[in-house]
Amino acid sequence: MKINATLIFVLLLMxxxxxxxxxxxxxxxxxxxxxxELFEPLVPNGQYAFAxxxxxxxxxxxxxxxxxxxxxxRNFNKLLxxxxxxxxxxxxxxxxxxxxxxxxxxFFWLIALLVDRLTTPS
Length: 122
Prior knowledge:
mainly alpha
């Protein structure tokens, strides 16, 4: 099976944008900091729904980080669609303003979907 270098390159850009997209708010703030710091005081307050969303964000982000390694997996197309939707959706539930930081991620994700659709044989 041929390795699609364009798809892997776009997936790597998607990963970089999921980690290092940031904003200058009293110094630079990056997405991975939101993922690690926003979700600290969850379960002690009895907010189990919020804890579940946090777990979904972390798991979907791990799947997004592994996507370039899973290109030969038979479930790759499903993972390419579902994991970013869960990642963006759960992050947006936690903090709506973080959605603005996810716009580059969404852009690269749509490009990855297009490249995958054009290169996958029917």
